[in-house]
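[Meeting: bench + compute handoff]

Bench side (C.D.) handed over the final construct sequence. Compute side (W.E.) agreed to return the predicted structure before the next meeting so the bench team could plan truncations. Sequence as handed over:
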Amino acid sequence: MITTLKMEKRKAQQRMLLVRLPSLPFNVKRLLKRKRSSQTQTVALAVEELDITSCLNISRTSLHDIIKSHDCTDTVLPRSFSQCFVGQVPLTDGSTCTIYTATEATTGRQVALKKGDVFFDKFQMENEYQILTRLPKHSNIIEAYGLVVDAEHNEICVVLEMCTRGSLIDMILANPSGVENATFLPIALDLASACKEMHAYGIVHRDIKPDNVGVTENNGTKLLDFGEAVDLYNDVHVRLQAGSSRYMAPELIAASSHRNEDIPIHDCPLDLTKCDVWALGVTFYCLLTGSFPLHLASSRDPKYEEWASTGSFGPQSKWNTLTESEKILLINMLNPSPFNRWTMAETHYYLLHKRQPMLIYLLK
């Protein structure tokens, strides 16, 4: 979490000073303001741990002492946001955030800037950065380089690793009949590996879909957009129905009574990891066939009813084009019963060994 403390405000245009302090003795990530010399500047502190009470009560003097004691003079970036990240070009414009490509002035590396309104998008952006920095580095999970505030434009920005070849949506559009198995398998393995690792650390994504899978220069894939992600080990409240409806598991759709209600994560009646498995299964289907299997995983959708009763997922003509191994994969990832649905570890095992994950238990 990031809090902005207003200490001094000038009528003149504010300038930004970015400072990276990796290890202060506090509890949540926050942004602070301090007065420097005779002008007000915004200081973005990459703070590891900061308790909200101490953050609000911190004095100008103690804040100055903290910064001075950590000797941040060697980590000061150019003072304006546009100088920090040059050549900004918009890539995509989502419902809440806009993605830009830019070059980081101090390193020369190409980055993606995920920008949102500092007042309306603050929670999601903070959550995404916090989740990504908590996870260990994984070759198929996007890396977050920083979280900064552009005070001049009232924007909050997550600085991310750049995926130069767009997303899986671009690949699906370029292959309207679906990709070949030789193309599908490495992608599926990459994503199952990323999700398996994520779940092992108690993180659920809650918005897996082709739009949120980036493609790198060497055609590798990376899981993106952790704004809706939840840490199952934290004492947080969560709204069950997150993500896009076409990728929601049937148990999520059925939980309509909790649609607009935030509940404690420890009281959550659903296995949210299995909801991720369903969403990844729908993503795999889209990649293999170039189409959606159904509109909604609900009895209101005849296609879902057909799947639940006959085991033919989506139109029969599409289903018949799949190999037997692809069908086994989808049948188990898209099982209407979350209890019988594969875990992400079982999904990864099957993709890796082409054997039913039941063998995992026999070999123990």
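W.E. noted at the follow-up: Residues 219 and 362 are 36 Å apart (CA to CA). C.D. will use this when planning the next construct.
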